[in-house]
Specification:
The chain is an alpha+beta fold. The protein is built from five helices and six strands, in the order H-E-H-H-E-E-E-E-H-E-H. A hairpin with a 7-residue loop joins strand 2 and strand 3. The longest helix is centred in the middle third of the chain and has 13 residues.
Length: about 120
Amino acid sequence: MTKYAKRILRLVNQSKGHMTAEQLFLELKKTEPKIVQATVYNNLNALCKEGLIRKLSFEGSPSRYDQIQKHDHLICKLCGAISDMQFEDLTGRLKERLGGEPVSYDLKVFYLCPKCREEK
């Protein structure tokens, strides 16, 4: 694993939010002034492919990167805010319905966050 991949993995795993590639690039640039965006994208793709991080894609929003620990997400349809949420584990139910083990699943719940509900 490259030194940049290690730093990106650490940033993603320590982040309280869901950082975009641009945010990761800007954060790395503080300590690695010679880093270029292509390096960040290449390492993010490699980390995703290795299953060390996961990529979150939502329509109309840049991809974000997250820890691989099982958890679900709440996404505000107006402002795009993303929050982690723990819902009931559906693996057993999915296994029954599919007649076998699911490869993976990602539950995303779209809603209006409290701030957007108040403003609306």
